[in-house]
Design goal:
Blueprint lengths: L2 H64 L5 H16 L12 H27 L6 H78 L20 H12 L9 H14 L4 H8 L4 H7 L1 H19 L1
Helix pairs in contact: 1-2, 1-4, 2-3, 3-4, 7-8
């Protein structure tokens, strides 16, 4: 491999490593953002629940006051919830929502809650007939309803952000997997190329050392002098590889037949197989592998029948 190719491969590997590191960093950031948004969504669901609870509990308090039942504990309970919705503190684990429309409506609701409490005090002093508590409570109910609706809209927006982050994370991971596969394939190719180059280097070395005595420098698998390998040497090599396996009794001739059978069953043309085996005539190949050809034809016939049916 030339120096230019080595430098090119080195640059490619370096670039791949940098891109992979950047993708991993982006994925970590996306995961952190995703966890944060999920936490926000859970908190928003709690806000919606308590905002709706305020709406219903206020109507209950008004009905109690109109019928002459005073409930200061319920008023304090509503004060605590509204304070938690506004500032994110208190005993109800509520959070503040970073949404202008929601906060605007909540502030208006809290301010109008003070007006409703003044009407409640008047009811206790004068009776509800001489107050505007019914009209005020209806207006307050509408305002509370708008606050809940704003919180629900914010929840929908947060859910959209989560879906976008999930999609971005999936794409990031997909690119990472593709990049890793490409790096693996590249590594395998480089390894194979290095083996071939090592073999060629060995042949060149032997050719230079032996000169014309190195008979076949164009061959890959040769003896030490560049000749065809001795049959017994190849046989012993095969036995060494298959020793202790289920193929221990396999001979070179059987291996040759196995190769030819696999080629024919794979649909390789008979003439190509014949040339591959070194037969002098295609008829020799056809006679030897008649049974294989017959089964292959049967498969073809079955396939045609299947397609036509």
């Amino acid at each position: 491999m030339s120096s230019a190719e080595l430098n090119k491969n080195k640059k490619i590997r370096t670039m791949g490593t940098v891109v992979q590191s950047v993708l991993i960093l982006i994925l970590m950031i996306l995961v952190i953002l995703l966890m944060s948004e999920i936490g926000t969504l859970q908190g928003t669901a709690r806000v919606i629940n308590y905002a709706g609870l305020v709406r219903g509990a206020t109507q209950r308090e008004v009905k109690l006051e109109i019928t002459g039942y005073q409930n200061d504990e319920l008023i304090q309970y509503l004060d605590d919830i509204l304070n938690g919705l506004k500032y994110g503190d208190g005993n109800y684990n509520l959070i503040t929502l970073d949404d202008t429309d929601y906060n605007k409506k909540l502030d208006a609701q809290i301010e109008y809650w003070g007006n409703l409490k003044r009407q409640i005090r008047k009811v206790r002093e004068l009776g509800y007939e001489d107050t505007d508590i019914v009209e005020v409570s209806e207006t307050y109910f509408d305002m509370a309803d708008e606050t809940v609706f704003a919180a629900e809209n914010y929840s929908v927006q947060t859910a959209g952000k989560i879906r976008a982050l999930e999609t971005a994370s999936a794409v990031d991971m997909l690119i990472l997997v593709i990049l890793m596969i490409m790096q693996m394939v590249s590594a395998v190719r480089i390894t194979r190329k290095n083996k071939i180059l090592e073999q060629k280097a060995y042949i060149d070395k032997m050719s230079a050392a032996l000169g014309k005595k190195f008979a076949h420098p164009e061959m890959v698998f040769t003896s030490a002098l560049g000749n065809y390998r001795d049959r017994n040497s190849v046989y012993h090599s095969l036995k060494r590889f298959t020793k202790g396996t289920e193929f221990e009794s396999l001979t070179l001739h059987q291996l040759r037949h196995c190769n030819a059978t696999l080629l024919l069953n794979s649909g390789v043309d008979l003439k190509v197989v014949s040339e591959h085996l070194g037969h002098c005539d295609i008829g020799v190949t056809a006679n030897i592998y008649a049974d294989v050809l017959k089964s292959t034809k049967a498969k073809v016939a079955d396939l045609v029948t299947l397609k036509l049916s």
